[in-house]
Specification:
This protein is α+β, with helices and mostly antiparallel strands. It is about 30% helix and about 30% strand. Helix 1 links the parallel strand 2 and strand 3. Helix 1 packs across helix 5 and helix 6 packs across helix 8. It is globular.
């Protein structure tokens, strides 16, 4: 991971932005995007919106790069993933306006959902290079899940989520818990093998926005952190899910934790998968860390902490 910090006396100064917005993400905070845009304009910035519903594969990215200092992703983690999936790597730094339900990325980089903090970061935040991974060729940056959490995502009603936010997950979570756990076969880096009932793969520390999945993961760390949760009774599955909500899954009995760059997850019957909180088909899943790269605009405190961590090894 590269942290681009040219010195405290020369902070970035961005004034030209292009905005890519998911208009239905985080309806409870739908005014945040407009307020941030107005604040940027008040500070002398020019903000150009991509046409609503624009086809990202058809965007003239080279032209946008020649006219702008950065691109803003306004939405949730899935909105950023879709944007980064279509924009050529390294063409423009990407900043975020966190409007989604979970916003794992905002938690990961310590970006408060306040008007002044978001605008300040977009204009003057440092840029870090984030290394993602691919699941069956599709990129993700934060996490992947195979089994219980992905089954809950599969059962989630998107209209209910848009209306109610987090409470919309209650019914699909309980429904997924009641389903017998699958038998997943996991192989890593061509050597280690194990069986599990649920697999969580972390490229970032946080999961679901507010709770920590792995202290060993992070954008400054090489490889993915893989959590192998054993097949168990419904009571134990409920305990594991509760522990995840309290950032304590790693301390639960029977959990195996691997560091790996390549994984293959198979099963006798198809099992649901998710990447960055979005439904992603079923097993078999092959995951490889190391690509693509994303130039991400982050708060000063995160960039400084990351640089210090890299310096100390």
């Amino acid at each position: 991971m590269n942290v681009m910090m040219p010195g405290h006396a020369h902070r970035p100064h961005r004034t030209r932005f292009v905005l890519h917005e998911n208009p239905i993400a985080g309806m409870a905070r739908h005014m945040l995007t407009s307020n941030v845009v107005r604040e940027l304009q008040r500070r002398g910035c020019l903000v150009t919106r991509l046409k609503m519903g624009a086809s990202l594969p058809d965007v003239d990215w080279a032209h946008l790069a020649s006219q702008n200092d950065a691109i803003i992703s306004a939405g949730g983690d899935g909105t950023l993933r879709q944007l980064a999936s279509h924009m050529p790597a390294g063409l423009l730094p990407v900043g975020i306006i966190p409007r989604g339900t979970g916003n794992v990325l905002a938690s990961e980089i310590g970006l408060a959902k306040s008007l002044s903090r978001v605008a300040e970061t977009l204009m003057h935040g440092r840029t870090v290079e984030v290394t993602g991974a691919r699941a069956n060729g599709d990129p993700f940056y934060l996490m992947a899940g195979i089994g219980f959490d992905a089954e809950a995502v599969r059962r989630l009603d998107l209209e209910t989520k848009r209306k109610w936010g987090r409470p919309a997950y209650a019914r699909p979570i309980l429904s997924a818990l009641a389903k017998a756990p699958p038998r997943l076969h996991v192989s890593a880096d061509g050597g280690r093998e194990a069986e599990a009932g649920w697999v969580l793969i972390a490229n970032a520390r946080y999961y679901g926005g507010y709770f920590r999945l792995s202290a060993q993961a992070g954008f400054e760390k090489p490889n993915l952190i893989v959590h192998l949760v054993p097949r168990a009774s419904i009571g134990r599955r409920f305990a594991n899910a509760t522990a995840l909500g309290f950032s304590a899954l790693q301390r639960m009995p029977g959990i195996q934790i691997w560091s790996a760059s390549q994984l293959k997850i198979t099963s006798e019957v198809p099992v649901a998968a998710q990447i960055d909180g979005d439904e992603f088909g079923t097993t078999p899943i092959e995951i490889k860390w190391g690509d693509p790269k994303l130039a991400l605009i982050v708060p000063e405190t995160y960039a400084a902490g990351t640089a210090a961590a890299l310096a100390t090894g």
